[in-house]
């Protein structure tokens, strides 16, 4: 059984800040997983407001183009991670511009380099979700976890996992635009699990 309040999934709230990489070469990417090979750095981003996202106030975490494939964070986040010896991440250079195309400093591209190598489905409960069988709780095999405070499941670009220690640190320091969910409440449809195993090559241990 998966222990509650041990690990949390993390992502920025899509509806706070929206920025978009400006060049066509960045059309298909996933910088969250740390693979930046072949890209020209720094990566420029223009403000991308619409009726819901005004981008008038900048948060500590912002998403790029409503996707989970790129996360941008403030220098305040980086300082906090360094001061507390948090492992499992790296940064890359980005350029952020406001709605008037003025440069906004103090932001970094954020990648996750910590990993867990496999899942163990027997750790999760099986239930029926919208007429389909699903797992309740993300069944990380902690014997394959590298011990990082921030990590991904190997070969999967999301969700991002935080330790409780790091989640509590973010809350204490009032890091803005950071959403967390207890991984014990995470649901995985059997159809998604099949894709993970048979197409993406996610490792299973039992």
Would you give an account of this structure?
There is one protein chain. The protein has 206 residues and is mainly beta. The chain is 13% helix and 33% strand. The protein has three helices and 16 strands. An eight-stranded mixed β-sheet has the order 6-9-5-4-2-3-7-8. A five-stranded mixed β-sheet has the order 10-13-14-1-15. A three-stranded antiparallel β-sheet has the order 11-12-16. A hairpin with a 2-residue loop joins strand 11 (125-129) and strand 12 (132-136). The longest helix is centred in the middle third of the chain and has 9 residues, at 75-83. The radius of gyration is 18 Å and the shape is globular.
Could you name the key traits of this structure?
mainly beta; eight-stranded mixed β-sheet; 206 residues; 3 helices; globular; single chain; five-stranded mixed β-sheet
- Extract low-pLDDT stretches: none
Sheet/helix structural class: mainly beta
The backbone outline, from C-alpha atoms, is: globular
Mean pLDDT across every amino acid position: 85
Spatial sequence of strands, sheet with the most strands: 6-9-5-4-2-3-7-8
- Helical amount: 10-25%
Question: In terms of topology, how is this protein built?
Answer:
Layout: E1 7-11, E2 18-21, E3 43-47, E4 61-64, E5 67-74, H1 75-83, E6 89-92, E7 94-97, E8 103-104, E9 107-112, E10 115-116, E11 125-129, E12 132-136, E13 150-153, E14 160-163, H2 164-172, E15 179-182, E16 187-189, H3 190-198
Parallel strand pairs: 2-4, 3-7, 10-13
Antiparallel strand pairs: 1-14, 1-15, 2-3, 4-5, 5-9, 6-9, 7-8, 11-12, 12-16, 13-14
């Amino acid at each position: 059984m998966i222990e509650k309040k041990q690990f949390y999934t993390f992502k920025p709230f899509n509806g706070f800040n929206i920025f978009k990489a400006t060049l066509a070469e960045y059309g298909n990417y996933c910088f969250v997983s740390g693979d930046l090979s072949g890209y020209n750095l720094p990566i420029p981003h223009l403000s991308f407001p619409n009726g819901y996202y005004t981008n008038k106030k900048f948060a500590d975490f912002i998403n790029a183009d409503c996707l989970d494939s790129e996360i941008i964070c403030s220098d305040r986040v980086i300082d906090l991670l360094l001061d507390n010896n948090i492992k499992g991440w790296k940064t890359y250079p980005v350029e952020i511009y406001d709605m008037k195309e003025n440069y906004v400093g103090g932001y970094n591209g954020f990648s996750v380099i910590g990993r867990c190598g496999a899942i163990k489905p027997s750790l999760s409960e099986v239930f029926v979700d919208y007429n389909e069988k699903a797992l309740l709780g993300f069944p990380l095999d902690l014997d394959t976890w590298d011990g990082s405070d921030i990590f991904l499941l190997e070969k999967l670009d999301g969700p991002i996992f935080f330790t409780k220690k790091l989640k509590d640190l973010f809350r204490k320091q009032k890091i803005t635009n950071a959403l967390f969910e207890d991984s014990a409440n995470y649901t995985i449809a059997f159809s998604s699990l099949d894709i993970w195993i048979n197409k993406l090559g996610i490792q299973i241990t039992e």
